[in-house]
Write a structure and sequence with these properties.
Layout: H1 2-20, H2 26-33, H3 37-49, E1 53-55, E2 62-64, H4 67-77, H5 80-96, E3 99-106, E4 109-116, H6 139-146, H7 150-159, H8 173-186, E5 189-192, E6 199-208, E7 211-220, H9 221-224, H10 228-248
Antiparallel strand pairs: 1-2, 3-4, 3-7, 5-6, 6-7
């Protein structure tokens, strides 16, 4: 648990710099993270020693170096899923001019890895690293639930509270089970105004190396519903192609 706390504080510090976007003194960091000054000092000293942050001047505060960015870029450039998915999903965004998102499933969580935005001002805003929320009310959430085995899905329904997000949200466990089964049969999952009024999202799965990924297309219902058949065809074809390409790698 002690080591876990150090890791958490290191990640908290990095996220704090991203949020504040300014140099921070030890006192600033301790205050904003609500941790003891001594603990803050240990994390800062370790990161400074490894070259991830630097001190602008005595008592002028600390700020990240470009080393973290360079490291992240190297890792990202070597990710086999992102390398293959980025070109295809960017092309999908260009064809449909709607938001296209990629997330990776881990248990009952799915984390967004890629997000391509359309040219339209009305769009679904998602940040890389965010997790899919409201599993019962989103197409990505339903896709995630469809990937669970019977035991895990039964456990989810036993404890889940299917609260209404809009008037269209499915709040019946039987109805949600049926909707998930329908999605599994047709190989895509639909959310039409169930999580946000006036927003439609469509999701499909692909697998690689025992991991499950979700591709989602999202946009205003006024636009997406008119081209839903084309969206579904392009989405399911893209997921099938990604799975074939990655398996062949």
């Amino acid at each position: 648990r002690w080591m876990s706390k150090i890791v958490e504080r290191t990640l908290d510090l990095l996220e704090l710099f991203a949020k504040e976007k300014r140099p921070l003194t030890l006192s600033d960091i301790a205050h904003l993270l609500k941790i003891p000054l001594s603990s803050c000092h240990d994390v800062v000293q370790a990161m400074q020693a490894r070259g991830y942050i630097y001190e602008l001047a005595p008592r002028a505060g600390y700020y990240p170096t470009s080393r973290l960015h360079a490291l992240g870029k190297e890792i990202g450039n070597s990710d086999p899923v992102l390398m293959r998915a980025e070109l295809l999903l960017r092309s999908l965004r260009d064809t449909l001019d709607e938001s296209v998102l990629l997330s990776k499933v881990s248990g009952l969580n799915a984390t967004y890895l890629l997000a391509f935005e359309p040219t339209h001002p009305l769009r679904m805003l998602v940040k890389i690293g965010d997790t899919v929320r409201s599993l019962h009310g989103t197409s990505a959430g339903k896709a995630l639930l469809s990937s669970l085995d019977d035991r895990a899905l039964t456990a989810f329904f036993k404890s889940a509270k299917l609260g209404p997000l809009t008037k269209q949200t499915i709040t019946s466990k039987t109805a949600l089970r049926n909707d998930i089964e329908l999605g599994k049969k047709r190989r895509w999952f639909l959310n039409r105004g169930e999580s946000l009024n006036g927003v439609t999202t469509v999701s499909a799965l692909f697998k690689w190396n025992s991991s499950i990924y979700i591709v989602t297309i999202a946009g205003p219902s006024s636009r997406l519903d008119q081209k839903l058949e084309n969206v579904v065809n392009l989405l399911t074809n893209a997921c099938q192609l990604l799975e074939m390409q990655l398996t062949a790698t």
